[in-house]
Amino acid sequence: MKKRLLLLLCAATVILTGCWDSIELNDIAIVTGMAIDPGKDKKYQLTVGYVNPAQYSKQNPAQGAPVSIMTLEGNSLPEISAKMNVGVSRRLIFSHTRALYINETVAKDNGVSHFLDSLERSPQFRNDFNILITKNHTARDFAMINDPVERVPSLKVQKSIKTLLKSWGGDPRVRLTDFIDAIIAEGRSPVASTVVIEGDPKKGQNAESNMEVKAPAKIMLDGLAVFKKDKLIGYLSLDDTRNYLWTQKLESTMISIPCEEDQDDENPLYFDIVITNNKSEMRTEYKGNQPQLKVNIFSEASINSMQCQKDLSKIATFTELEKKSDKQIKNMITETIEKVQKDYGVDIFGFGEALNRQHYKKAKKVLPYWNEEFARADVEVDVRIALRRSGTRSKSFISDLPKKDAED
Amino acid sequence: MSKKLVENISLWQLAVLMFTFEIGSVAVVGVGTDTKQDAWIAVGVATVLGAGLVWFYVYLLQQLPGRNLFEMITFCFGKWLGKIIGLLYVYYFLYISARVLRDFCELITSVIFESTPIEVISITMVGICAYMLYLGLEVFGRTGEVFIPYVFTFIILIGLAILFSGEFELKNLLPILGDGFGPILKHVFPRLLTFPFGELVTFMVIIPYVSHFAKAAKVSVFTVLVSGFIIIYGTLIEIASLGARQMERTVFPLLSAAREISLLEFIERVDLIIVFVVMFGIITKVSVFLYGGLKGLEHIMNVPYRYMVFPISMIIGYIAIQISANNAEHIEEGIRFIPLYMHIPFQIIFPILMAPLLIWKVKKQKRRSDANGSR
């Protein structure tokens, strides 16, 4: 009996000592950002930014940089990241990656699919990081810009995108799987956010820059990168990005609309509406041989500011303002769609997928050359804004000011 | 002849085992991915057909109450031919048991324990199954009973969590039946009907030991319908959250879908819950197949199956690793060869061939006993 027990204990020491794959916490380095640049000798240059944990100790935070970076060249991401330990002491853990910066040159020349596959295949990467195309500076610079509030640059970017989506909506809300799905989809082309650095990236790298009130360098969201299959072909502005998002899934936004259509340029007057609830639906139809793209938008909104002299306690005013907003937003969105049609000729909106859902038989025929069909299609945007309320005041005090006409 | 222990499980335990058996493998590899966004319709069609198939199995068992598949085969074909056919079934059950185990090992080694040798996972898993079967069918049934609430709630919860994290896009289900019923039927037969529903043929070894045998038919059919419903639910989740294109490309769709969950930025990375469901489903499935094989050996060799539990299960653990050199081979075999050369003969053709013989023999026996009684 005793012998048996001893044997059991021996066996237990082997079995119960834990997982095969366990790594101690002080042996890992958590990667928060990855940046991909074109390599000099090899295909890519990969930069990883990993957190310096001593910076986050509550009792006595160490003075120093919140993240460290390491750059290497190689032909594939897994190869480079496995080799990173030539300069990094700890094992790199990628499951908390927050941002993937891709240099625009890489996206333009090589296409992105070669390294996206390795990200999708690896069980380490989750589907929750942002794909960002970097403009003007190398992607490496973006992994290094300090932020006084969030400290870790990639965390800052992700948080800023998340917040922007709630307040204004300037990010296409694209994750890795959506992006890959759009590459292979026949009725949709991929998009990604773009970022730029405002200021001097050299100064922004220094941890001391966190001491300054006005940060010497800042990462800013800049709009949209348009792809054809997996190659970057152009950019859209932030405003276009919001309009793009409006056709997809807009959470909330604030928009200023001119009070009169032909106002004097010296002192234009605007009112602001905040969109609180938004529903958009896309329909693609064929009239004979001509494709028709339709977007129906219904948004609930409330008035947030008023520069013109309108009496907001009257129904008529609400109806008038609703009509003005309808028209303004309709024009904006139509303009964006037509711009994409004319400049890039790729369907980033997913009208082709809508056709596939709505008219499967027709879609089967035209989807193989859908982008040409998209480029020549008629666009019809139908916007219906429902103004619900006007904040805590009904009439604006402005409407009690003596009117201009009365002054004469 | 050696003394046989007669063990009984309740109807509820039978239902639990069938249910976990059905959803186990499906939760690992996903079903109907070839039919794209119509996978759930295909599963629905297969469920109805599968329920019919299970009713047929129980109908066969009802002809000879209290006897399992192997005893039935001997009854129909005589001692020697019966033994040969019985051995073929044993081979089938044990092989499928190893395949199911391999499914799970692939999941664990490619998603969670990347550097753990596959042998360790295989042996520990089959060790649990072996221990459970060594303790007997009753213990197996009770184990199922203990875990079923978790399995059930977890699956439902995962679906709700995906729904509430906003990843659930009903748009992904469109167009419904874009290419008509043709591709669906092609996929249902043979693939979907045989896996996961036809595999219930193994339960022909277990159902005779249910205490209220008279109600077994109703309960089995009902269980198949319920589990079919849950599989449809799971498939809908997969399609709606991943989209048809991505679902086709993922090796483990339900797990990938669970990875999309992010509730209130607080409940995240809950894919381990799916691993739990899968793990329990796999334990059940491996055990049921293993039990089928062992019972067959017991019948053929006249040795209580408990003597063989550990050696056979270790062999299974070994075969699971040896059956294929890599994941691609494993999957391609499962798609192209197994349904055609193993599932269809053993699940459909053979029982159908046996049915008239069985009915005729039972009638003959009855007539003889009636004649004996009247004499």
Question: Which helices and strands, and how do they pair?
Answer:
The complex is a heterodimer of chains A (408) and B (375).
Chain A: H1 2-15, E1 28-38, E2 44-51, E3 67-74, H2 77-83, E4 91-93, E5 99-103, H3 104-109, H4 113-121, E6 130-134, H5 139-142, H6 153-167, H7 176-184, E7 191-199, H8 201-204, E8 217-228, E9 231-236, H9 238-248, E10 253-258, E11 270-287, E12 290-306, H10 315-343, H11 351-358, H12 360-366, H13 370-375, E13 378-389, H14 404-407
Parallel strand pairs in A: 1-4, 1-5, 5-6, 6-7, 12-13
Antiparallel strand pairs in A: 1-2, 2-3, 7-8, 8-9, 10-11, 11-12
Helix pairs in contact in A: 4-7, 9-10, 11-12
Chain B: H1 11-29, H2 39-63, H3 69-77, H4 79-112, H5 118-135, H6 137-164, H7 182-197, H8 216-242, H9 244-249, H10 253-259, E1 262-263, E2 267-268, H11 271-301, H12 309-322, H13 327-374
Antiparallel strand pairs in B: 1-2
Outline the structure in words.
The complex is a heterodimer of chains A (about 400) and B (about 375). Chain A is an alpha/beta fold. Chain A has 2 domains: about 25-235, no CATH class; about 240-408, GMP Synthetase, Chain A, domain 3 (2-Layer Sandwich). Helices cover about 35% and strands about 30% of the residues of chain A. Chain A is built from 14 helices and 13 strands. Chain A has helices spanning about 1-15, 75-85, 105-110, 115-120, 140, 155-165, 175-185, 200-205, 240-250, 315-345, 350-360, 360-365, 370-375, 405; strands at about 30-40, 45-50, 65-75, 90-95, 100-105, 130-135, 190-200, 215-230, 230-235, 255-260, 270-285, 290-305, 380-390. In chain A, the strands form 2 sheets. In chain A, strands 1, 2, 3, 4, 5, 6, 7, 8 and 9 form a 9-stranded mixed β-sheet that branches. A 4-stranded mixed β-sheet of chain A has the order 10-11-12-13, with helices on both faces. In chain A, β11 (about 270-285) and β12 form a beta hairpin. In chain A, α4 crosses α7, α9 (about 240-250) crosses α10 and α11 packs across α12 (about 360-365). Chain B has helices at about 10-30, 40-65, 70-75, 80-110, 120-135, 135-165, 180-195, 215-240, 245-250, 255-260, 270-300, 310-320, 325-375; strands spanning about 260-265, 265-270. In chain B, α2 (about 40-65) runs antiparallel to α8 and α10 (about 255-260) packs antiparallel against α11 (about 270-300). The mean pLDDT of chain B is about 85. Chain B is mostly helical and about 375 residues long. In chain B, a hairpin with a 3-residue loop joins β1 and β2 (about 265-270). Chain B contains 13 helices and 2 strands; from the N terminus they run ααααααααααββααα. Chain B has one domain (about 20-350): Amino acid/polyamine transporter I. In chain B, strands 1-2 form a two-stranded antiparallel ribbon. Chain B is about 75% helix and about 0% strand. The interface of A and B includes residues 184, 358 and 360 of A.
